[in-house]
Specification:
Number of helices of chain C: 5
Number of domains of chain C: 2
Strand content of chain C: 15-25%
CATH superfamily of one domain in chain A: Aldehyde oxidase/xanthine dehydrogenase, molybdopterin binding domain
Chains: A alpha+beta, B alpha+beta, C alpha+beta
Order of helices and strands of chain C: EEHEEEHHHH
Number of strands of chain C: 5
Distance between the termini of chain A: 38 Å
Distance between the termini of chain C: 52 Å
Shape of chain C: elongated
Number of helices of chain A: 20
Strand order of the largest sheet of chain C: 2-1-5-3-4
Oligomer: heterotrimer
CATH topology of the largest domain in chain C: Ubiquitin-like (UB roll)
Largest interface: A-C, 61 and 59 residues
CATH class of one domain in chain A: Alpha Beta
CATH architecture of one domain in chain A: 2-Layer Sandwich
CATH class of the largest domain in chain C: Alpha Beta
Helix content of chain A: 25-40%
Number of strands of chain A: 28
């Protein structure tokens, strides 16, 4: 089916164009350079010995047989490496509370400190000539563990005195209790409708197609550490490594060429990566490489979406939501990269695109003996996932159409700027326009007729809608700004150095589009350099839907500054006024007299080689260093999704009929890239509702340890996408808004609502706990009979 | 526990005759394993769920890769690739149930390498070909140190991935009976995603003479430790004739089942849906028989 | 080939060139390609035959290289993603269509997709949409939602709605 896109704005030569990606030729022909593709001479390979028990004390650990195996270089345990750790915290979350910072962290160790705290917990690290030999050696390590009952289940763990971490006083790592505000009790108690529901996500994992991995070479005689990693942020890894082992940051270089996805899993440095850094530093004799395999990735990388939320809406007789109580609890496993609740982020955005004047939120994060929780595409998504399901449930209770219920409460254009109950100022958003476009595209009336006809035929169809606002491009802490450094060479072409870390984001193409447009040159004259701390200015990497806003803004700023200098030089050389000059295709000419023209290369040679020809006050060289800090801490974007499904009541199998997205991300740099981000996000959202379940048994054993059990959606399960675009400019330079995470945030409730709408045809009450797998659906249908 | 993805060491053998294969299996007993398509065996070895000192590659053995029409049967040699059988016109016309079952197996890349014989010898209770062999009353040809023997499908599947083959025997071919005029076949399965192992599936064959049911065969997969022949449902269907209430037949097929639960589905779900897939497979089979 | 202990010598034709490798029987073809033959275009995403990133052509048929021991393949003809482009180095129809339709983002699953689709469309020049999706059902992608890949396949078999 064709994917109609609405007309959108183009700016200059390249912005707003679906320019084909320059990343593609190498990736399509097998010439990418991912971390495992690099094989420095003499590289040694890592395998981990891991716990097969969720909680217990190590009573026997003997690595001597492993050490003795031919081909093994070293085997280290917690006793070897943990004492070498100086500090273990992430720049992006800041120092731990013990050091005067704001963020709680789990106990700092890189290998099990005499006890194990989740199945998969690394106990020892083997360094050997090949991965094959390293695994043979790992099998020879003798480990005995006295198992203890695992602390499982977030509510049970919160209440339990059995501790996941003996170093803490409680399994609740951080909590913000729901405030008691007696003045507001009446609002809730007297409301015409008071509805409470509890929702639960299914534990999931990011599962990038390239697992984690890094090569670390620590050379004490050169005083250098070189790291090549699959990472979203080379500077984060560099500063983390420096603190971890106590060497200066300036001695460390981190490089990431091509990275095979991350979705947040490769943003923070995690424990195994830290173990490899510490082990490589101790070993020192050769590069040490760890390439995570898929089983490790499913058992020991991260969990996400392991959350529950209890929402209470107070609603008046006309369907206005008067207030909301929201209590979130999340399971953060044993060793999350940081222990603060992601719900703390979520609370700020909880009211979404609606006028909900009162919000009483609380949240807590709880340790359990499972894998640690880390960021996953829209880490705060639980607010939209739960709220949008709640909207449908409340609508049904009130006997109002779910779309109409949203319209009653939606922030209208005249309400902007709108200050939410959490003091967020929402502006430059279009919830009404996107909801209108999505519902028009899906043709609600036509579908309802189709649904009724199908019901007469014994077929069960459902429609689900969801809408939200996205806090993109967060601009505080280390994320406050993004840099761009532009240099022009003697041929008049430019290199742009960014603090980004593209891992599928098409940044080499999109930022080149921005620069070429604002500089006035051909896009092929713009080279983008990122992912190397030796050349990239300090930036937070890529994540949090920030690139267009922050890196785009920085690139635009730098391009304009460089162009200004070029125009000054050209004006001086051509004895014209800078105001009379125009630039096209790297040629500066006097407006109306095309023969009076000078090419960028001439200007560059003048600037670099003939400084006496420069105008007074203009120094030699052509380098611009710029930084862009967005005007507010969040740049808001929004979208509405609508989808239709058919549910087979005999088997509980769900298939998609249509999936419609109306997206407003401001000025699109590359519409094709925007749509690709949406599609990928929605696939993950669909996975989280229907297929993905990183389950554990009652003893803390992970059950989904291969792709046979952790089910990613494949092509036949996915719908075709239909896109509509609304463009309302943000207040940022360029009018951009971030949107990369949005598809994954708002699709789960759209899908859930469609399934529950289908179930409603059968008189089945809505499901509220993911996954909505066929078994769960059939059980619900059975129960309703 | 490591989290292994590299196999342990083994010695590799690539004999060219069945006799040599059998000799190696006899010599090394349970330290040896036969490798055909490898689509099930190699991942098990990589994950170190299974370790063998000796791997005996079947792929160089001469004469195991034929598809022949003999004596009322289609005989498919042990190393015939699933993809080849899937696209073979004789298989499609003579043993349509095999042709219908094959596309459900995994993905085309798996079928390019996986073998018909290997799938049956591996005997995963959730896969299509063992159930197909059971439904069609196929005969498994085996070769061992004592010579060759024939094993009826109903005697072949003993437990989860356990068959009547001895450690020193190999499956050399499977013979599928050809049904007569008026036959039709159907396959219905429920899987989490396209190509996944079935949570619950059924294969069905019917032969009709007007409304009279000459022959009926129904086998279920994914609902027990082995594929299961739904004999009482078959008998009920024969007795009732082609106009039977297929919903009732489906329930009859599901009634004796005691499927187990796993991460993907409960035993109760499997049992409930078994009735549905039997009904759907029979519906398709009857429709084809009538056309 | 008879009983041998230790390393085995294997000669294969890879992307048109004859190559000889000596390796342990247990070494997977995916590792031999990547390590011994320096062809790192074939990617390893799961090593248990589920994700399809390691797909190569073996005697013309698309197979998972992580499910083959290299020693099995003496005398075989292998094409990896590095051998898919046209002889003059230009992208083949599938590769060009993938670029035209944004069928890749991070690129990690892409070699398996390109090899699988090239083989599938060679043998099935006019597939339906359902057949296209089934054909790539064994290639897991986490970035694209398959939208761009399906459009690429449509374009590569000459259907107008696939083209941007």
């Amino acid at each position: 089916m064709a994917t109609p896109t609405s007309a959108h704005t183009t700016v200059g030569r390249y912005i707003g164009q679906s320019v084909k990606r320059r990343e593609d030729p190498r990736l399509l022909t097998g010439h990418g350079r991912y971390v495992d593709d690099d094989k420095p001479a003499g590289t040694m390979h890592v395998a981990f010995v891991r716990s097969n028990v969720a909680r217990g004390t190590i009573t026997h650990l003997d690595v001597s047989a492993a050490r003795a195996l031919p081909g093994v270089e070293a085997v280290y345990t917690g006793d070897d490496l943990n004492p070498t750790i100086q500090q273990m915290w992430a720049s992006m979350t800041g120092p731990p509370i013990e050091m005067g910072g704001q963020s709680p962290y789990p106990p700092a160790n890189v290998l099990a400190p005499g006890d194990v705290r989740y199945v998969g917990d690394p106990i020892a690290i083997v360094i050997a000539e090949s991965r094959y030999i390293a695994e043979d050696a790992a099998d020879l390590v003798e480990v005995e563990i006295d198992a203890l009952p695992a602390v499982l289940g977030m509510r049970a763990a919160a209440a339990s005195s059995e501790l996941v971490h003996r170093e803490t006083e409680s399994n609740v790592s951080a909590a913000m209790p729901t405030p008691e505000v007696p003045e507001l009790d009446a609002l809730f108690d007297n409301a015409a409708h008071l509805i409470t529901r509890t929702f639960g996500g299914a534990r999931a994992s990011n599962v990038p197609m390239e697992p984690r991995g890094l090569i670390v070479h620590s050379d004490r005689y050169r005083g250098e550490m070189f790291i090549r990693a699959a990472t979203q942020s080379v500077h984060e890894m560099k500063s983390f490594a420096a603190r971890l082992i106590g060497i200066p940051e300036s001695h460390i270089r981190v490089v990431a060429d091509d990275v095979g996805g991350g979705f947040g899993q490769k943003m923070a440095v995690m424990r195994e990566e830290a173990a490899v850094i510490a082990a490589a530093h101790k070993y020192g004799r050769a590069p040490v490489k760890w390439i995570e395999d898929r089983r490790e990735n499913l058992i020991s990388s991260n969990q996400a979406r392991s959350e529950e939320g209890t929402l209470t809406f107070a609603i008046d007789g006309e369907g206005h939501i008067l207030g909301c109580r929201a209590e979130f609890i999340e399971e953060i496993g044993a060793y999350p990269p940081v222990s603060s609740p992601t719900a703390a982020l979520a609370i700020g955005v909880m009211t979404g695109p609606y006028k909900i004047p009162v919000l009483l939120p609380g949240c807590s994060a709880v340790y359990t003996n499972t894998v640690g929780k880390s960021a996953y595409r829209g880490p705060w998504a639980l607010e939209t996932i739960f709220r949008e399901q709640m909207m449908d449930i409340c609508a049904r209770e009130l006997g109002i159409d779910p779309i109409e219920f949203r319209r009653i409460n939606l922030i209208q254009p005249d309400d902007l700027p709108y200050t939410t109950a959490t003091q967020m100022v929402l502006d430059h958003i279009t919830p009404k326009e996107t909801l209108d476009q999505a519902t028009e595209m899906i043709d609600v009336g036509g579908f309802r007729a189709e649904q009724a006809a199908a019901k007469a035929d014994g077929r069960v169809l459902g429609l689900g809608v969801a809408t939200y606002v996205e806090p993109s491009a967060i601009a505080f802490g280390v994320f406050n700004s993004d840099p761009a450094v532009i240099t022009m060479d003697l041929s008049g072409k430019v290199q742009v150095r960014l603090g980004t870390g593209s891992h599928g984001h098409s940044i080499e193409t999109t930022i080149a589009q921005v620069v070429a447009t604002h500089l006035g040159c051909d896009i092929d004259d713009v080279a983008i350099i990122q992912g190397d701390t030796a050349t990239a200015p300090l930036g937070p990497g890529t994540g949090g839907s920030r690139t267009a806003v922050a890196a785009g803004g920085a690139a635009q700023t730098a391009s304009i500054q460089l162009k200004d200098k070029l125009l000054q030089i050209a004006a001086h050389l051509m004895e014209a006024s800078a105001d009379d000059l125009e630039v096209e295709n790297s040629v500066v000419s006097v407006r109306g007299t095309p023969q009076a023209a000078v090419h960028f290369s001439q200007l560059a040679m003048t600037a670099h080689m003939a400084p006496d020809l420069l105008p007074p006050g203009v120094g030699p060289g052509l380098e611009v260093v710029a930084r862009y800090r967005p005007p507010s801490e969040f740049t808001w974007s929004n979208a509405a999704h609508a989808c239709t499904v058919e549910l087979d009541p005999e088997t509980g199998v769900v298939r998609f009929l249509r999936y419609v997205v109306s997206e407003d991300c401001g000025q699109m740099i590359n519409p094709m890239v925007v749509e690709g981000q949406i599609a990928g996000g929605v696939a993950q959202g669909i996975g989280g509702v229907l297929f993905e379940n990183l389950a554990y048994d009652d003893h803390g054993n992970p059950l989904a340890t291969t792709f046979l059990d952790y089910l990613l959606p494949s092509a036949p399960e996915m719908p075709d996408f239909e896109y509509g675009h609304v463009e309302s400019m943000s207040a940022t330079l360029g009018g951009y808004k971030g949107m990369g995470e949005g598809g994954a945030i708002v699709s789960p409730p759209a899908v859930a609502n469609a399934i529950n709408d289908a179930l409603a045809q059968l008189g089945v009450p809505p499901l509220t706990q993911f996954p909505f797998d066929p078994n769960t659906i059939v059980a619900a249908i059975n129960a309703a009979r | 526990m490591g989290a292994s993805v590299k196999p342990t060491r083994f010695q590799y053998h690539a004999p060219t005759t069945v006799g040599d294969v059998v000799g190696l299996l006899a010599e090394h007993a349970d330290e040896a394993k036969v490798l055909a398509g490898g689509q099930s065996l190699v991942p098990m070895m990589s994950l170190r769920l299974a370790t063998f000192e000796h791997v005996v590659d079947l792929n160089r053995v001469v004469g195991l890769d034929t598809i022949e029409r003999t004596n009322g049967h289609v005989r498919i040699g042990a190393t015939v690739r699933q993809a080849r059988a899937e696209h073979d016109p004789m298989v499609a016309s003579e043993v349509p149930l095999v042709a219908k079952a094959l596309p459900h197996i995994g993905h085309f890349q798996i079928r390019n390498r996986g073998t018909v014989g290997g799938s049956i010898a591996h005997a995963d209770a959730a896969s299509e070909l063992p159930a197909t062999a059971l439904a069609l009353d196929a005969t498994i040809e085996a070769a061992g140190p004592a010579g060759t023997r024939q094993i009826a499908a109903c005697d072949f599947f003993e437990g989860p991935s356990q068959t009547a083959l001895a450690d020193d025997e190999i499956l050399t071919a499977v013979r599928f009976p050809v049904w007569g005029v008026g036959s039709g076949f159907g396959v219905a399965e429920i899987a989490r995603r396209h190509g996944d192992f079935a949570i619950c599936g059924a294969v069905a064959g019917v032969q009709l003479d007007g409304d009279r049911v000459v022959k009926a065969a129904v086998a279920l997969f994914g609902v027990g430790p082995t594929p299961i022949r739904a004999s009482s449902a078959e008998q009920a269907f024969v007795a009732a004739g082609a106009g039977a209430d297929l919903t009732a037949i489906g329930r009859e097929a599901a009634a004796p089942l005691t499927p187990s639960s796993d991460l993907h589905a409960s035993g109760d779900y499997r049992k409930q849906v078994a009735a549905v897939v039997v009904r759907r497979a029979l519906t398709d089979a009857i429709k084809e028989a009538r056309s | 080939m008879s009983e041998t202990i230790g390393q085995i010598s294997v000669t294969v034709t890879v992307n048109g060139r004859r190559r000889t490798v000596t390796c342990e029987p247990r070494k997977l073809l995916s590792d031999v390609l990547r390590e011994d033959l320096n062809l790192t275009g074939t990617h390893v995403g799961c090593e248990h035959g589920a994700c399809g990133a390691c797909t190569v052509l073996l005697d013309g048929a698309a197979v998972r290289s992580c499910l083959l021991f290299a020693v099995q393949l003496d005398g075989s003809d292998i094409t990896t993603v590095e051998g898919i482009a046209n002889d003059d180095g230009s992208l083949n129809d599938v590769q060009q269509a993938m670029q035209d339709n944004h069928g890749l983002q991070c690129g990690f699953c892409t070699p398996g997709v390109v090899v699988s689709l090239t083989a599938f469309l060679r043998d099935n020049p006019s597939p339906t949409d359902d057949q296209i999706r089934e054909a790539i059902s064994g290639n897991l992608c986490r970035c694209t939602g398959y939208h761009g890949i399906v459009n690429a396949a449509r374009q590569a078999c000459g259907r107008p709605e696939g083209a941007r």
